[in-house]
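Subject: Interface between my chains keeps coming out wrong

I've been trying for a while to get a sensible model of this assembly. When I model each chain on its own everything looks fine, but I need the whole thing in one frame so I can look at the contacts. Pasting all components below, labels as-is. Any help appreciated, I'm running out of ideas.
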Amino acid sequence: MFESIAVVGATGAVGQIICKLLEERQFPLKRIKFLASERSAGKRIRFCGQEHVVQKLEPGAFEEVDLAISSTPDEVAGWFVPEAVRQGCVVVDESACWRMDPNVPLVIPEVNGEAIRRHRGIIASPNCSTTQMVQVLKPLHDAARVRRVVVSTYQAASGAGAAARRELDEGARAWLAGQPYTYHEFAHPLAFNCIPQIGRPKHRAYTSEEMKMVYETHKILEDDSIQICPTCVRVPVANCHSESILVETERKVTVEEARELLAATPGLVVVDDLDRKQYPMPIHGDGRDETFVGRIREDLSSPNGLALWCVSDNLRKGAATNAVQIAEWMVAHLVEPRCESSS
Amino acid sequence: MFESIAVVGATGAVGQIICKLLEERQFPLKRIKFLASERSAGKRIRFCGQEHVVQKLEPGAFEEVDLAISSTPDEVAGWFVPEAVRQGCVVVDESACWRMDPNVPLVIPEVNGEAIRRHRGIIASPNCSTTQMVQVLKPLHDAARVRRVVVSTYQAASGAGAAARRELDEGARAWLAGQPYTYHEFAHPLAFNCIPQIGRPKHRAYTSEEMKMVYETHKILEDDSIQICPTCVRVPVANCHSESILVETERKVTVEEARELLAATPGLVVVDDLDRKQYPMPIHGDGRDETFVGRIREDLSSPNGLALWCVSDNLRKGAATNAVQIAEWMVAHLVEPRCESSS
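Reply #2:
Try treating it as a single job with all components included. I did that and got this:
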């Protein structure tokens, strides 16, 4: 149903995984084009046995395109997405630019896929730190209504881009050799350190990354009454974000019930056996499309609380996989690609 | 007043710092001896310009010793501490063995130094993850009564010992070279990973490290009514533990008031300017004796909550420094070294 597809930001860390997923999952399409910044235009991408030349992202690029899956900086999404929509293209956008727009559904297909039906040309994919948390909250919210969340994140270098991931490696090498190293992608050295700031100051001493976890969770779960206190921290992990989450629900959920609810939720895998030292960890989540949850236990500090730990590949379910799943949802549910409001 | 001192476990990661601190801080003493396991006996330690041979820790070692500062595994402290006390020695013990004994004060000098007066031969120093948290909680508790704490830790390799710290380096080197590496000190690879387990399973799916943060905090603050939910995580940091802490108090404490209270507390340093990217980080805490606190902000999820982030050198204030400060407190407050109950 989408005859012609574009991957925007195709040469980036997330874009490359989008291409790989479209290929591996045999996404139905007739034509595909790969778009990127001027700097990357001219590079070559191999897709389904054919070589493609990456084209420059420019206003006219979407005339023959039905669907764009896009991972670009926010300011790029700011100008090109409306252009693409005007040309009749549906855009699944990874950037933060359109997520909070009331006309744009913000979607995790397993959580609120139906919201896609309301799209007017743009469907946004949430921030990586939000996605894995909301996947865990959703079944608990449905069963017992989530009232409050306290979350501390352990976020990987790859979330800051491919260059940031390389910097972690180079910085670690320099540290081990006792050599100085200058970071450009991080405000402070990341190797063998923790940086308790992701994003810029945004709201009452919370960062933009932290406020995304509040605003986006409210939007996806369609419930602004959930109280959320996030602390976002960059740790010297290559890939996969981890989160320590405390959830309070209106009705008490036992550990056993929580484990059953989470295990029955598509996209989640429960790994929870402390006696056997089994719990989610970044090195196991890397390259996987699921979100892993463990260390599920009763909160010692409130009657209706649960503490747990979740890990997800921030480049995959936190970005590329979720975007491709949104596109797959549209194919499966026959959403009209060229929506009326944008024609 | 302590004529003769012993450092027990003198060759270990913490023991070495204890020796350095006694020297640097010119701790008053006439004689010093260095004790360690059979494996380390015979090694040499330089102290105040003189070379000393490390002696084997054995039952008769404390006959002429007034004060022992000790950092050993729990099982070692289990047998030697009562022996030392029987011989009239006061023991400041870093191990977890005696901390929860009702006859043993558990002390952070800036927090509850007066408890030292009640000692009966043993004074325990708290677990590293507890110490830095309680330092932060204490002024808030005094001012507004702490009711609840949710804490997620980011703990350094050095907390598992000197060998563990070396393993992180070696594991990181192997990872960067694409080589396999077998960890012995950790159940899972630590380099570029997070391990959400420290200690053994202890209580309702919480680990021993997590429960230390509950039990020890209650004992030090003499208030079992404080509700605490801890999650302890090992991160690939060489040294210095970080903690993301949410504190709820009976009376609301504003950010400004909290900052003033914390800044006025001996042993704490407030580093809190998000706009200038200033906050505590492990690389800055390394080698320092203070605990650093920042990212102080109003909890977005409760009316009387505060969120904050603290960092401390787990080998220093989390261990060696605190033990030496306990000994210094005794010197300053003229506590009789050979206490009556043990003579």
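Reply #3:
Confirming on my end. Residues 96 and 288 of chain A are 23 Å apart (CA to CA).
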